[in-house]
Specification:
single chain; TIM Barrel; 12 helices; 8 strands
């Protein structure tokens, strides 16, 4: 039986870090990694949706992970999302991630073509076989991948001893209860329901807005562990309202978050990659308001 305690806690989804020309910046990757470590997070989830993975080449994704690991190895837990929309590239990223010493790899199902469950299982098992000494996390995000994890597919995947659990980004909290009952370790995905997910049995949270306000999500996790649900709910509600404000900008939410980071003392990690929409001048009042809200909430709760 694997000891999964190292995965319990808060994992910000790592953001893509670009230079002024829009190329992956090793220096900015290292700066953001150190920034997150100093915030006290459990670990980082690297190369996923928040990392703009589908807009990056295999070599760019390798470069980014190499620079995360140069700073983080041995200090925090690293889960590397390695899925591409073909098996060969995914396996190459999986093998590379294992060579760097990550704690786990993760993968969404193949997107665009709706494959049958046995084909998805083969895809995931092939990726896992390319990193035979590394834990594997299924990433369930049906609203973007176009296919949803089922109990039957999860049972099939759990026959693979490297499969430890599910990063669950579907909206029903019931899914967390189902995957938990199958024996999977569950990472809550939707940031807006971290509290609900933890209460339903998730052992950790991975979130795209965690990096903008890790102190608040760390506090939610701590309070739930202490059984202080009403106090945790107050912070969760506050985080949700910040997220709603983030999503009201014309620019992409991750462009907003990168602006917030700059205003709140974090590193400059550039913009977002097209076709994601970068910040517009009219977005700056929203960015400034979100940054101020986060500062006030941290002062109040953390």
């Amino acid at each position: 039986m694997k000891d999964l305690n190292k995965y319990r806690g808060i994992f910000p989804a790592f953001y893509a870090c670009y230079d002024e020309q829009g190329a992956v910046s090793p220096e900015r990757v290292r700066a953001l990694t150190e920034h997150m470590i100093q915030k006290g997070v459990t670990g980082l989830y690297v190369g996923g949706s928040s990392g703009e993975c589908i807009y990056q080449s295999v070599e760019e994704r390798k470069l980014l992970l190499e620079n995360v690991m140069a700073v983080a190895r041995g200090r925090i837990v690293i889960i590397a999302h390695v899925a591409c929309n073909n098996t060969d590239d995914s396996c190459a990223l999986a093998a590379h991630a294992e060579s760097l010493g990550v704690d786990a790899i993760a993968a969404i199902p193949p997107i665009y073509f709706h494959l049958p469950p046995y084909a998805i299982a083969k895809y995931w098992n092939d990726i896992s076989a390319a990193a035979p000494n590394t834990d594997f996390v299924i990433y369930n995000i049906p609203q973007l991948a176009g296919v949803a994890l089922s109990s039957d597919l999860l049972r099939e995947m759990l026959k693979n001893p490297r499969v430890i659990g599910v990063k669950n980004s579907s909206m029903p909290v019931q899914d967390i209860e189902m995957w938990r009952d199958e024996g999977a370790f569950v990472f809550n995905g939707p940031d807006e329901q971290l509290l609900s997910g933890l209460v339903a049995g998730a052992g950790a949270g991975i979130g795209g807005t965690y990096g903008a306000m890790p102190e608040l999500y760390l506090m939610i996790y701590k309070l739930v562990g202490e059984g202080k649900i009403s106090e945790a709910r107050e912070i969760q509600d506050a985080c949700c309202h910040v997220i709603y404000k983030m999503c009201s900008a014309k620019g992409n939410m991750y462009a907003v978050i990168k602006g917030i980071l700059r205003l709140n003392g974090g590193p400059d990690i550039g913009g977002v990659r097209a076709p994601l929409y970068n910040l517009q001048p009219e977005d700056m009042p929203i960015v400034e308001a979100c940054a101020a809200d986060i500062r006030e909430l941290i002062a109040k709760y953390a």
